[in-house]
Give the backbone structure.
Amino acid sequence: MHLCVKLTPRAAADRIGGTRLDANGQEQLLVYVTAPADKNKANEALIALLARHFDVSKSAITLLRGHTDRVKWIEIDK
């Protein structure tokens, strides 16, 4: 499964907030994490949150694109 995620670091709580359409009509999953976007901490928190949500191991989640952007492409192997 592939997901487009819009990540917001330094949020009040770790949570998945629904979806939205970007300017190109691409659906994005809105994800909020408390971790800062420093030294890959927000990406690690994103992977941990998605692993819990989809009930998979963290190793089943791959960050394909957007390592330093807020919009990320994720692959989840089930």
